[in-house]
Amino acid sequence: MGDPIDRILEQWRRERPDLDLSAMGMFARLAQVMRIMEPRVERVFGRHGLRQGEFDVLAALRRSGPPYTLIPSELSAVLMMSRAGMTNRLDRLEAAGLVERSLDPADRRSFRVRLTGEGLRIIDETLTEHAANLALLASPLTAEDARALAEILGKLLDGPLGSSEDAGTR
Predict the structure, then answer these.
(1) pLDDT at 132 over 80
(2) Does the pLDDT value for residue 170 go beyond 50?
(3) In the predicted model, is pLDDT for residue 168 greater than 70?
(4) ∠ CA 128-125-98 to the nearest 5 degrees?
(5) In sequence order, what DSSP letters do the residues of 77-92 get, joined into one string?
(6) Residues 98/118, Cβ–Cβ less than 8 Å
(7) Residue 25 DSSP one-character state
(8) Do residues 135 and 124 make contact, with C-beta atoms less than 8 angstroms apart?
(9) Distance between CA 98 and CA 54 in Å, rounded?
(10) What is the dihedral angle through the alpha carbons of 132, 74, 118, 124, rounded to the nearest 10 degrees?
(11) What are the helix (H) ranges across the chain?
């Protein structure tokens, strides 16, 4: 027989032949991929002194383009997280010298977050290694497989899964 998930599904099919368990197998494999992948991704971030959340903030600023500046509400929206959680990340990144906060000249009640030169250097180095790591992890797939998987996962996110009440609140 196949992998451990195939064995589990076979046991359930024997015990509950009345159920369609194909979705269970698919989601079990997605969860297994994420469990295996997560520490490998975190190791790359750790080598650059970052956690996943900090990488996400730096990456959002970097891909916003010069001058690599956003207001916290924009960052919260882009990263789908609470403003309180964003404040904690910004505090850590500012203490590390990777971002600067300054009053927003357009709205003195708000401030702007900008990548520092060191922040730009760190995110570029980390992103380069992260992209190579993800490419290695995806290397068993052909380019066609990868496109098909991305399309299929997009369909899942466009369906009930993506529209659930708690989507994007992690």
Answers:
(1) yes
(2) no
(3) no
(4) 135
(5) HHHT--HHHHHHHHHH
(6) yes
(7) H
(8) no
(9) 10
(10) 20
(11) 4-15, 22-47, 52-63, 72-79, 83-95, 117-137, 143-158
Indicate the SS3 state at residue 68.
coil
For residue 112, the SS3 value is strand
For tokens 């401030």, name the residue. Answer: 111
Task: Return the structure tokens found at 74.
Answer: 């924009």
Helix (H, G, I), strand (E, B) or coil at 99: strand
Q: Write out pLDDT tens, residues 55-88.
A: 999 999 999 999 999 998 899 989 988 888 888 8
Tokens 């964003």 correspond to 86
Q: Over the stretch 83-124, which tens digit does the pLDDT of each residue have?
A: 888 888 999 999 999 999 998 777 777 889 999 999 999 999
Length of the chain, please? 170
Residue keyed to tokens 């919260």: 76
Task: State the pLDDT at residue 33.
Answer: 94
Run of H or E residues at 103: strand 99-104
Measured between alpha carbons, how far is 50 from 66 in angstroms, rounded to an integer? 22
